Fold this sequence. Notes:
heterotrimer; A: mainly alpha; 27 helices; B: alpha+beta; CATH 2.40.50.140; 6-stranded mixed β-sheet; 24% helix
Amino acid sequence: MATIAKPSIPALPGARLPFTSGLPRFLTILITAAAVLAPLSLIIYQSLLDAPFFDKHHAGIAAYQFIFADPDFWSALENSLLIATGMTIIAVPLGGVLAFVMERTDFPGKRWLEPMLLVPSFVSPMVLSFGYIVAAGPVGFYSIWATDVFGVVPWGLYSLLAMSVIAGLTHVPNVYVYASSALKNLGSDVEEAARVAGASPFRVAVSVSLPLIMPAMLFSAVLIFFLGLELFGLPLVLGDPEGHLVLSTYLYKLTNKLGTPSYHLMAAVAVCIVALTIPLVLLQRRLLQNVRKYATIKGKAGRIRELPLGKWRWLAVALVYAWLIVAVIVPLTGIALRAFVTNWGFGVKLADALTLDTFRTIWNEPTDVRAIINTILLGVIGGAITVACYTAIGFATHRRNDGWSRVIDYLVLLPRAVPGLLIGLAFLWVFLFFPPLQPLRATMFSMWLAYTVVWLAYGMRLVSSSLLQVSNELEEAARTVGASRGRISREITLPLIRHGLLGSWLLVFMIFEREYSTGVYLLAPGNEVIGASLVSLWQGGAIDIVAALSLVNIVLVAIGLAFALRFGVRLRD
Amino acid sequence: MSELTVENLHLAYGDNPILKGVDMKLERGEVVSLLGPSGSGKTTLLRAVAGLEVPSQGRILIGDKVVFDGSRGVDVPAEGRNLGLVFQSYALWPHKTVFDNVAYGLKLRHANRGDIGERVRSALEQLSLGPLAQRLPHQLSGGQQQRVALARALVYNPPVILLDEPLSNLDAKLREEARAWLRELIVRLQLSALCVTHDQAEALAISDRILLLNGGRIEQQGTPQEMYSSPQTLFTADFMGSNNRLPGRVAEVRDGMALLEGHGWRLRGTAKPSAAPGGEGVGMIRLENIRIAEGPGENRLPAKLSTSMYLGDRWEHLFHVGEARVRAYGNAQLAGDSHWLEVPPQALWVF
Amino acid sequence: MSPRPLLLALALAAAPVVAQTVPAGYPADYAQTIAAAKKEGRVVIYSALDTKAAQPLIKDFNALYPDIKVEYNDMNSTEMYNRFIAESAAGQGGADVMWSSAMDLQVKLVDDGKAMAYMSPEASKLPKWAVYKNEAYGTTYEPAAIIYNKRLITGNEIPHDHASFAKLLETQTAKLKGKVTTYDIEKSGVGFMFVVQDTKYFPGMKELEKGFGATNYRVYASTGNMLEKVSSGEHLLGYNVLGSYALVRSKKDPNLGVVLPKDYTLVLSRVMFIAKGAKNPNAAKVWTDYILSQRGQKMIGGPVELFSVRDDVDAEYTAASLTKELGPNVAKPIPVSSEITQYLDPKKRLEFLADWKKNVAAGSGK
């Protein structure tokens, strides 16, 4: 007794002053709110004017009157809704089945296949769409082969239906990650029970496993629909030539429709998009809470055993590989091929057109080289700082159920609801018209800040899922032995989530490599990045450079992916 | 002096009230158990004392220091309450060694290095953990982890130690040994402890006093003996021990005794406050107090044997008395299916 | 990260030191301008021409003025305009020189008072239509062309003027379905400008628009896309593409044929002006004068592979060589004047677009 109860320890000096302990948190919240709200409020303000806010202007709803009277707006809205619906219908069941096959069955080669499945979510849609044109467009590499065999090209790329299908197929990974993590939390006993009762693997998936992960499926359906409304790169490349507008490409078109940029109209469209997507974001949030609840209920499920596919094996293999070929191999080989030829298409022998000139051009072009270096730096160093920021925000809301946490929760969801293009423009305004930031405008900082804000929701999900994996009791244990919140964060929670943060860093790296629309307006000499340059180059028509830079971009992502696999990072949240 | 005082504590999760006015005291050197079914609020009460839940009203004092007072807006955060808490899951920090886990509380109190080393080592010795100081938690067995959790809570000598289901994560056999060991440790170190458990046997064995919670209120409190042998409510009677329930009608109440009538039987029993003549009543009797008799007699029941189970040291027989099922212990297997059960009036409580 | 282009700095360091003299025919006080420009040390250019394409100009300029660093920023003409007006409103002027193919936007900026008045000593050597208010100058002479896929459009199918192009659309509707392309005039200012000029010179424009509708034409925001698609055979014909780019590509690309219409060929001229409040006004003057000079124009008509606006240069692509090829009075330069800004009035522009769409829809039978 005496050894423990030595009275030499001073009594604990009461509670920490709430002011000092709350200050870092308050600052974090303040900075986050400023970074999110400054560009957004500029957009809303701009939408209520009839000219650029820095020009002579009058307030009013003229912008809204204009777009609501424009038939193009309505057709864009209709197309957006159609494509979003179409891709949801395609991506959700496919993603669910894919998740079931990968998580639950003895599908051959799963370990090798899993990273491949996620590739489309890490490649810029610009790059993918461009790859589709080169590979499977009317005179694409594969189309010409198909013509040799069938006499005609048995597919088309440019219709609304085709866009929905491509968008659907390339968004399968987004469903897959949610469905498979929900399946991971589900005991295999329920499936075994169904097998014993006489159900085939397919029946098991359809009648047992998938209904049980319904909340996760529902969540991903809303997510896909949301992403469908936000689609930009794909309809820009595939839809524009035929005049198929969607909301974001309509917005982009308004840049020039009146001859001079019509910011007020663009802002009004953006506000409409936000108005459409905010309910979805809120719904998503609600559903996500359900998913979590469900996951914890089922969380104690036992060990997962693989379901033997038996004679279904070949059907599953065919399905998975067919998807893989269409969604990954075709566009990526298209890009790769285009990067190495001078010209292509009908009557061109690729062997005659092979060249490395494009890469030489890039190598000799300081801005392109800089774009590559900047993109790497932005992903590696910027990504690390970004994850640090997300972590700080994560800590500011972690295990706090007060108003501020809820404010942050909603704030982080907002930027994603605005098309990246316009957020980028709004950031340009912020950097132009907010004097303390002016010197930083043409630097990587502006690019980094915009990226960080745009991907807040994604990053916060990564960080908070790491945080949630730290059992509450570990932190409470530290509190009861006398540690303040700050010390708990630094000495208990942070060391425990460092692997998760490392993983988040890699994922943020890949997302930053992939991002393309946000930087378009922030591009300045010195801060070029590949993604934004691609949009610019595509608009300018330097297709060979687009292809080669895309290939470089893909290689960077692949390196990230390889690292992620090497270090066993879970490629999902 | 009371080490811990809780006065009229209320706490709700949203619209769902969990604690509805709880009062309790914990005296120095005393072990008090919070007992109750799940959802009764016992863990919430413990967490409120620790500062991990925020009550809506009431007061909590540790020693004479107010750590929570709903009316004055006082709420000392958990880290300022200087309590020791042992979690059900032990909540050992997986990235720290046993030594560092235990030392953390001392580090936070700015003890000097030498002092920390000495105190941690002696705490580990006390709990027979000495050789394991440099291990990581996942390298320990469940019992060892539990002792580390205890050492971590004890090392800075808190006035009160809070134990949340301290034994529930151990397997059945280990649990009984640990129970004895824990009781011995608490007595030897003269700890003041508040312990949450849902296991009445554990509460009986370990505590000086038991608080039985039911639906956010204290149903009854007292020494283990009082709780077990003179329950004041049906809930308490039912919760403690293994019981038989005999629903019937209270025919009369006189001199503290009640007459309970069922279909084809009449029994005299001790009247509890809720027993009212002429109303429905429930007779409660512990399994060990029923005797299997040879034939009819005073306070005996006719019963049909349904089945018998062999428990090793005795038999447990299951009888049907009308609609009711009655279990009783016996030393031998029974023959035939009609039997008589004797219910001593002082052992039958009529509610 | 340094915002300055590193390689240019290296090129600058490597350039030989040349004694600076006032070019022939320039006023004597030009020496002061050069001295001031050297002191400024750099000139910031916003341009719609690729850095890659502009490289010969920059190198040559640096050979001439090694002390003036060229910070060349290429972006598309809309972004350029966006950035310029935002920067100028924020008082954060970045550009010293604006150089863009969006002639109308450039003229508008001049009309809006965003340009610095500067009478270039070279102005007298330029055609009259290429000089605007002593502030803005047309610097190139780039024809609008029709392109076709050589493997798939052959013999007398190849159009030679606007009428035969319209006729081809009318007669070969089935073959050309989905295979005719031109600028998206809602997205591309240059494309819009071209068709406005077309309505001026080509009486059959309405029929052509119907032909676009009938063949279910495809639209792009840039010449590069059209070249790519016609070369690959996805499309067969491209209308109103930038001839300079097309000619350059057709030299290396056996699939691509280029036609400069014989009835009239529209000519676009990249407009350059010095920004009002430029931080390096003297360097900007020196640069502008260089571009307009015989030496600069020779680069433009040579390795830059645009057409020089001046007649008095000896290079592969010049206004003179084009005139020689087309015959007299066929080339119709779009004048650098406020005439071309009339369609920047939203109402007028929308009317024009609506009219265009109506004709296209009529052609497609919708």
